[in-house]
Design a protein that fits this description.
Length: 121
């Protein structure tokens, strides 16, 4: 099993920035990618960004390119931390952001509990 824990959500004004973090622990050797999805009220969950195990490959949804940056932090023991830096936030970026892990660039095998992001217009 893989455990994923998100942090860093909150309230921000439009145009502002937030940084989300996801810490992965457990049997992470079975996951090649860690990603972020989000779900706005009344909408389906959608892919935001993903990163490969070695941190070299990064993948983004078109609507966040140039604004969001996904990165892999240095590992601490058996834990891996992935960050999502979000700039130029807009009201449409409001939602619950979920960390995920799995075998493809848009991983959906494991999920965290989510962290709320609210962008005030």
């Amino acid at each position: 099993q893989v455990q994923l824990k998100e942090s860093g959500g909150g309230l921000v004004q439009a145009g502002g920035s937030l940084r989300l973090s996801c810490t992965a622990s457990g049997r992470t050797f079975g996951t090649n990618f860690i990603g972020w999805f989000r779900q706005a009220p009344g909408k389906e969950r959608e892919f935001v960004a993903g990163i490969s195990r070695d941190g070299v490959g990064t993948y983004y949804a078109d609507f966040v390119k140039g604004r969001f940056t996904i990165s892999r932090e240095a590992n601490e023991g058996a834990k891996t931390t992935v960050s999502l830096a979000m700039d130029s936030l807009a009201f449409e970026d409001t939602g619950v952001y979920y960390c995920s892990a799995g075998l493809d660039p848009r991983p959906t095998s494991y999920w965290g509990q989510g962290t709320q992001v609210v962008v005030a217009s």
